[in-house]
Write a structure and sequence with these properties.
This protein is an alpha/beta fold. It is 27% helix and 15% strand. The chain has helices at residues 5-8, 30-35, 37-43, 78-90, 109-116, 176-191, 215-219, 225-238, 255-259, 274-277, 283-296, 315-318, 324-333, 376-379, 398-401, 403-407, 413-426, and strands spanning 10-14, 47-50, 94-99, 128-129, 150-153, 158-161, 196-199, 245-248, 270-271, 304-306, 337-341, 435-438, 445-452, 455-462, 468-470, 481-485, 498-500, 505-509. The strands form four sheets. Strands 9-8-7-3-2-1-11-10 form an eight-stranded parallel sheet. The structure holds 1-O-alpha-D-glucopyranosyl-D-fructose.
């Protein structure tokens, strides 16, 4: 059986504003990213996913797209993007880009035309409705960022829908011309050599605001039947090309509905699993989530694991700093595609953002703090991210956690991640060909066996605060070998009656 690249991939999310700044304006850019690609090669990742770099007024830092087929001058230009793809491909790193089909910026020329008059040919490219009597909006939907999901446009006397900020009007996929124009933007980037797309808020696609429905419906979290039809058309465009991949941000907290975008094989290849991302650090809870996904992931569905992105508190803060490595083992030891977020390999916590420095509409600045490449004592307050003033402060721990500091330390988080990714490449049992079987290992320990041919591995993570003796039958009588531990000082001795310190995780070769 042949496994496509994305079934085994480790995909590294770059948030371009915060990765590396080449021109000293304090904001990261594509040339900066090119200059740091060797960090990604050394780490061993298979692909990068770039958050939006399109022209944008940056009301939602690029998730408000004003032109789907260009690069914002802040980040570079199309020639730099082409160079990025070439440089990444030369290193064997694929390039996945973000694509935001649910809404554009209100600065997009399509919306400018749409709002100009009720008779404009593009009027119907967005979702316009009459209000209810008494100056009320068409229905009571609320936006994800708070407040009404409708904004009144006095000149034309109608309301437009926006699931997010009012500067992010929802596109009307029911209009065939809009749909064709959007699908054309996919081909634009596919022709430039991108390997896939991360698709923003898939569950909101195809929302039908008629007739006005009560708010309870909205809280359902949507995954509209029309949305599945739209995703099939998107997949159809990818199928015109070889070997491309679509991963959806499907923000539904129900794994069965999540899997419904995957099982038929003609929608998404992969979908981010927010039930997993939001699960508590507890062995029974994690086991339940992983088992449930396995149960509902029939047909073409393939697992995707992800614990961090640009919207959520980082692992080192959410679970605690001592758990970042064990979380890495969880992420990369499970069968499936793994997504990581820039700085996760450094064990970065959320940054403290002074009230005066908060800029995000939804308060997500702490996870978007710039990458600390070098200690501030050496590189100045920009920590090697910028020679200017960073747009957000770097983490307080930059001196200790900077990439250059960790690179020289075999006991660092970065060294652990690098070994773990290498092991995942090396051992077939950790790849897509390796089966996965969760063990009944009690409330403290999450343990599972990966197996391919005669290669058998046990992965065990102590999620409790106590030292435990993990006396699993799988360990057998003969000595087993610890291939990797989150504790870099642990000897690779006999693993029988495996003792695990709090928050320790190990990969053991079974006899
Ligand atoms: O996020 C969608 C989304 O649902 C988030 O608003 C999420 O609920 C919230 O951040 C949880 O804290 C995507 C992008 O990832 C996000 O950055 C954008 O702001 C949003 O879409 C709008 O495009």
């Amino acid at each position: 059986m042949d496994f496509p690249w994305w079934t085994r991939a480790v995909i590294y999310q770059v948030y371009p504003r915060s990765f590396a700044d080449s021109d000293g304006d304090g904001v990261g850019d594509l040339a900066g990213l090119i200059g740091r690609l060797d960090h990604l090669s050394a780490l061993g990742v298979d692909a990068v996913w770039l958050s939006p770099f399109y022209p944008s007024p940056m009301v939602d830092f690029g998730y408000d797209v004003a032109d789907y087929t260009d690069v914002d001058p802040l980040f570079g230009d199309l020639a730099t993007f082409d160079r990025l793809v070439a440089e990444a491909h030369a290193r064997g790193i694929r390039v996945v880009i973000d694509w935001v089909p649910n809404h554009s910026s209100d600065r997009h020329e399509w919306f400018q035309a749409s709002r100009s008059s009720r008779d404009d040919p593009k009027r119907d490219w967005y979702v316009w409705r009459d209000g209810r009597p008494g100056g009320l909006p068409p229905n009571d939907w609320v936006s994800t960022f708070g407040g009404r999901a409708w904004t009144f446009d006095p000149p034309s006397g109608q309301w437009y829908l926006h699931v997010f900020a009012s500067a992010q009007p929802d596109l009307n996929w029911a209009n065939p011309h809009l749909a064709e124009a959007m699908l054309g933007t996919l081909r634009f980037w596919l022709d430039r050599g991108v390997d896939g797309f991360r698709i923003d808020v898939v569950q909101e696609l195809g929302s039908i605001p008629d007739p006005p429905s009560p708010q309870a419906d909205w809280a359902r979290g949507q995954d509209w039947p029309e949305g599945h039809a739209i995703v099939r058309r998107i997949r159809g465009v990818l199928e015109e090309y070889d070997d491309r991949m679509a991963v959806g941000e499907v923000y539904v907290l129900d794994q069965e509905r999540l899997a419904s975008f995957l099982v038929t094989g003609d929608e998404l290849h992969l979908a981010h699993n927010f039930v997993f991302l939001r699960a508590a650090w507890s062995a029974p809870r994690m086991r339940a989530v992983i088992e449930e996904f396995a149960r509902v992931a029939t047909g073409a569905a393939w697992p995707t694991w992800c614990l961090e992105n640009h919207d959520h508190s980082r692992v080192a803060t959410r679970y605690g700093p001592g758990r970042a490595r064990a979380a890495a083992l969880l992420l990369l030891g499970l069968r499936g595609c793994a997504f990581m977020f820039q700085g996760q390999e450094l064990g970065l916590p959320d940054a403290e953002i002074p009230p005066g420095a908060v800029v995000d509409i939804d308060g997500r600045d702490p996870v978007r703090a710039p990458m600390p490449w070098e200690p501030p004592s050496v590189a100045g307050p920009g920590a090697g991210f910028t020679t200017g003033t960073p747009w957000l402060p770097v983490v307080q721990e930059a001196e200790r956690l900077a990439a250059s500091v960790q690179r020289g330390d075999p006991g660092s988080d970065l060294a652990f991640w690098t070994r773990l990714i290498a092991l995942r490449r090396e051992l077939a049992a950790l790849g897509p060909e390796g089966s996965e079987r969760l063990l009944d290992s009690g409330d403290a320990v999450l343990a599972w066996v990966r197996e391919a041919g005669d290669e058998r591995l046990l992965i065990a993570i102590n999620m409790s605060a106590e030292r435990v003796l993990c006396d699993l039958a799988e360990l057998g009588e003969a000595p087993a070998h610890v291939l990797l531990s989150t504790d870099s000082g642990r000897p690779d001795d006999d693993a029988r009656a495996l003792g695990l310190a709090p928050d320790e995780g190990v990969v053991v070769r079974l006899p």
